[in-house]
Amino acid sequence: MIRSILSFRTLSIIAAVSLTIFASNFAAAQDSGRSLIEFSSPFGVGLVVIGAAYGISKLAAAAYESMARQPEVAANIQLAMIIAAALIEGFTFYALFLCTPKA
User: Fold this and answer.
1) b/e map of 13-43 (b: 16 or more CB within 10 Å)?
2) In terms of domains, do 49 and 25 share one?
3) Residue 44's CB: how many other CB atoms inside 10 A?
4) Do 33 and 88 meet the contact criterion of CB atoms below 8 Å apart?
5) Domain count, the chain
């Protein structure tokens, strides 16, 4: 588990995503003179979207693997997968609502 988290591929993806987020935030800060606190909402939105994409991808991968192992229950697995994906997306929309900047 630890080796998969600390693999070069995982660390490079995390570094690329965080560099992109921070570089865009600091570039916008130089133009408008805003403080660093105002960048917490875009950072939160980025984390929510990354987390939701990761969760749905793990859900789909596990569902497809189990459907391949037991094709006779594929309809039940697919229904459970759709319900779980809808719940993940609902939570994602709620989190995005909480992360949006207030006017």
Assistant:
1) eeeeeeeebeeebeeeeeeeeeeeeebeebe
2) no
3) 16
4) no
5) 2
Count the Cβ atoms, other than its own, within 10 Å of residue 48: 19
Domain that holds residue 75: 35-103
Helix H, strand E, coil C: the string for 33-63 is: CCCHHHHHHHHHHHHHHHHHHHHHHHHHHHH
Query: Locate tokens 């080796």: which residue?
Result: 3
Tokens of 79: 């229904």
Tens digits of residue pLDDT in 27-75: 455 555 555 566 677 777 878 888 888 889 899 999 999 999 999 999 9
Under DSSP, is residue 69 helix (H, G, I), strand (E, B) or coil? Answer: helix
- Identify residue 19 by its one-letter amino acid code: L
The token pair that represents 1 in the structure block:
């588990």
Neighbouring CB atoms inside 10 A of 46's CB total: 17
29 and 73 co-located in one domain:
no
pTM passes above 0.70: no
